[in-house]
């Protein structure tokens, strides 16, 4: 039995070979030599690639260290999401989605409904999806939810869904496999955008699906082949390389996020503060039960009085990039309402804590809040 840091450093590496690198470089190939009628693990670039194989083995070790699992990598998180939904659902099926999840889910809903699939929605908090499960083919869970950071009980929902004959997929992007393991809690799929914390440097688009069921993995893999949503070998290699520091980054980011959330509690202009690690957070009790105690994620959300106040705050930050996405080594923040896809107030801020020293980051945030409040009162 090894710890998370050890596992992350070693995951997916080939056996040591004299004079060869520990992590071989990316393999760029559209086709492979196929003598005669021979077939093998690598035939054509849309089907398979040795660089994917190593990455997928590594992610499988992190998502499911105690049981065999199958991972399929994709060109983006949304490609992974789409693969699960559209490989599992058919005309006449019903699916349950969170109504407070990632902002592209409404677009996904419209597409599903255009194919004759019934879409039901319910909030993440309070396990509200339990009330609309009957007759569903698939339950989609996002916990913690993005951007509201609500948490639901994966095990409870999975047991209820399976009792009704439904499959369960969990978007594990915000938690990462080092913060939460959905497959151990009963989910059929763990899905994530590797663009976020998994790669952590804001320079790679990638997604993945992990399942312990070989048939489900084959179905998802066939979807990837059919639509061609494959990752590039360089992106796959960069992602695998980044796994070695995942545990260090997640630990530092989670500690910094909790420290920032604690400091924000003292600010009168801040409302709606959320972070699962805060003992006062509505989701904390459930988060403690299913997430690692020191890894509640890098994201803090809160609301400032209005749009102008939020924009003054963002403009005054010096250590934080005004950018979308989360989980990177550099802190980012954005006024989430600018996209129009989330049901959030105009002053809602989604803040992703990087690996900066927490004291430096907190000082920068407090200074920006002071500047934003001063500008508003002048």
Automatic annotation (TrEMBL):
Query: What GO MF terms are annotated?
Result: cystathionine gamma-lyase activity; pyridoxal phosphate binding
EC number assigned by the record: 4.4.1.1
GO terms in the biological process aspect are: cysteine biosynthetic process via cystathionine; transsulfuration
InterPro entries per the UniProt record, alphabetical: Cys/Met-Metab_PyrdxlP-dep_enz, PyrdxlP-dep_Trfase, PyrdxlP-dep_Trfase_major, PyrdxlP-dep_Trfase_small
What is one GO cellular-component annotation here?
cytoplasm
Q: Which residues form the signal peptide?
A: none
Q: Which Pfam families match?
A: Cys_Met_Meta_PP (PF01053)
Family label: Belongs to the trans-sulfuration enzymes family.
Q: Which PANTHER family match?
A: CYSTATHIONINE GAMMA-LYASE-RELATED, TRANS-SULFURATION ENZYME FAMILY MEMBER
- This chain belongs to which protein, by name? Cystathionine gamma-lyase
Q: Which organism is it from?
A: Streptomyces rimosus subsp. rimosus (strain ATCC 10970 / DSM 40260 / JCM 4667 / NRRL 2234)
